[in-house]
Amino acid sequence: MKKKMKRLKQILISAIIIVSSSGCNNDFLDLKPQDAVSEANVWQDLNLIELYVNDRYNELPHGFPQWAGGLRMTGITDESYHMHEARFLDKYTQGGLTSGSLNMYYFNGFWLDAYSAIRNNNIFLENIALYSGEEVERVKQLTAEIRFLRAYFYTELISRYGGVPLIKETFSLDSNFDVPRASFEECVEFIVEELDLAIQDLPNKNEAVELEFGRITKGAAIGLKIRALLFDASPLFNISNDQSKWQLVSDACEELFNLSQYSLSTDYKGLFLNAMDPEVIFFKQFIDQYGFELVDVLSDFYFHYRGGHSIDEWRFPNGDGGWISENPRQEFIDQYETTSGVIPVLGYTGTNPNNLTPIINPNATNYNPGNPYQNRDPRLRYSVLYDGTVFKGRQLEFWNGGKDSRNTDVDFWWNGSVLGYGIRKSLDESWELNAGVASDQPWIYMRLAEFYLTYAEAQYHLNNFSTAVEYVNRVRSRTGVNMPPINASGDLLAKIKHERKIELAFEGNRWYDARRWMDAENDFAKDIVGVEVVRNPSNGSKSYRYFYFEGGTGKRSFPAYHYLWPIPIEEILKSNLEQNPGYN
C-alpha cells in the first residue's frame, strides 16, 4: 500500500508539472484526460496543492551530498581535506576555476537546479489564486512556504554569484528570455520582501508539531532573512561599510529572539542528531530515503544531486568500515583553544616539510605537546575524530599500525585518514556497515547559536561592544562546553570570527563566512598540515610528527576572483548575461 501511494504521488506531481508546462494550449486543458490531472483540478483540490508543495521541499539541497554541488563544502575551505574528492575539488582549491563546464562540473549544477526550483515555485504563485475552497488559512501557509523556498534559492544564488536574474514569473513562448542580472542590492530587497510576506502566515515552532513537524516556520524565514541581510552588510558586498545595513541585521536578529521559541542546546554533540532539539530552527528530514542518487543530465553537462545521504559511511573511521573521507586539517585543529581560553599552536616552522616544529603559544600554559588533545575546548572531541578519543566504545587508533590507520595490515586501510583526523559532528555512532549504507539523521540548516554570533558581529559593527561580548559568551558558556568568557580587549572582531569558526565547524558555514569577510584569500590559500601519530611498541607512548601534505591537493591557493563563482558558460553564450570578473 505504501509503495502504491508513493507511486500515486509521483504520477500526480508529474501530471501537475506536465500540464502546467503546456499552458500555451488551452484546448488541451479542456480535454480532461483520464490518465492525468488537469491544471484546473489541481488548484481546486487542497490535497493536490499540498502534494505539489511537499515536492518542492524535495528540491532543497542539503549539506550531506557526496559532491560539492551541495552545501557540504568543508573540503574547499581551511577546515578539511576531502581525500575522495580531491581530483574534483582541486579546480577550486588550487585557483583553477573557469566558466567552462569541465572545471565547473561539480559546482554549477546548482545554478540550474535553483532556477528549476524557482520556476516550480512561480507556477504555484501564479495559480494558487484559482483555489476557491474553504481552507483559506491553510492555503496562506502553503503560499508562505513557497515564498520561503523561492527566497532560499535566491539567497543561495547571490551568495555564490552576486546579483542574478530575478525571475518572478514563468515564461511563455513569446516571453523575452534575455533577462539581465539584477544588482545584488535588488536581489536582497526582493528576498527580504518575500520573507516578510511569508513570516505573516507561517506557524511558530511550537505549532509545527505532529504532521506539521519539519515544515517551514516563522523562525526559519527570519533566519533566512538574517542571512541575506548579513551578506549585504559584510565587506564582500558592503564596500562602503554602510552602518545602516548592520542595523538591519541587528533588527532581524532581535525579531528572531523575540519569538521566544528557541534556546541553546545542553547537548552540543547530540543536537545534530535530534531535529527536536530546542536550538534547531530549520532542518531537512530523511524518511524512507535510501542513500543518494547521482543524476548526470547530459543536456546541461553538469552534475546534479538527488535523494538522501550516506554520511555515516562517508565519515566513519576505516576501523569501523567507513571512508573517513573528510580529514580535518591540523591548522584547523590548532584553532580549538585550551580550556583556559588560549589558542595553543600559532603555526609551524622548520626546513624539513616532512618534520615541522609547532610554534607553541607561551600563554597556553595548560597545553601539553606530548598529549595535544588534553585540556582542549570540549567541542574538539564533539566535532573531530582523533587518535585516542572514544568512539563506539573504543579508543581510535590513528597511529601507524592501529586499527584506524593506513597501515596495509589493517582492514580498509586504503580509506585511512591521510591527515590523522576525521569529522565526528553529525555521526550516528549506532550505525553499522552491515546494516546498509543509508543514514537518516537530519541536516540542520539553522540553529540559534549561529544567530547569536551573527548578532554579536552586528553589534560589533554598531559599536555596541559589551552586547557583542555578551552574545559570544552565551555560546561559549553553554552546558557541556563551559569555555571561559572573552572580553572586549584586543581585536574583538577576530574573537567573534574565531568563535564562529569553532562553534559552526563542518556545518557548511565556513565557506560563506570567510568569503563575505574577504578573509579567504589568506585563510584558504594556506597549504595543508597533517599529523602522523607514532606509537612506541614497547611502552605504548606516543609522539607526533607534523608535515606539509603535498600529495593530492595539499597545496592551496585562492585568487581574488574566486570570491564569486563563474556563471555557467552555457548561460552566458545563450544570453547577454555579464560574467563575473576573472572568468572571461
UniProtKB/TrEMBL annotation:
<keyword id="KW-0472">Membrane</keyword>
<comment type="similarity">
    <text>Belongs to the SusD family.</text>
</comment>
<dbReference type="Pfam" id="PF07980">
    <property type="entry name" value="SusD_RagB"/>
</dbReference>
<protein>
    <submittedName>
        <fullName>RagB/SusD family nutrient uptake outer membrane protein</fullName>
    </submittedName>
</protein>
<keyword id="KW-0998">Cell outer membrane</keyword>
<dbReference type="Pfam" id="PF14322">
    <property type="entry name" value="SusD-like_3"/>
</dbReference>
<feature type="domain" description="RagB/SusD">
    <location>
        <begin position="305"/>
        <end position="583"/>
    </location>
</feature>
<dbReference type="InterPro" id="IPR033985">
    <property type="entry name" value="SusD-like_N"/>
</dbReference>
<keyword id="KW-0732">Signal</keyword>
<dbReference type="InterPro" id="IPR011990">
    <property type="entry name" value="TPR-like_helical_dom_sf"/>
</dbReference>
<feature type="domain" description="SusD-like N-terminal">
    <location>
        <begin position="27"/>
        <end position="224"/>
    </location>
</feature>
<dbReference type="InterPro" id="IPR012944">
    <property type="entry name" value="SusD_RagB_dom"/>
</dbReference>
<feature type="signal peptide">
    <location>
        <begin position="1"/>
        <end position="25"/>
    </location>
</feature>
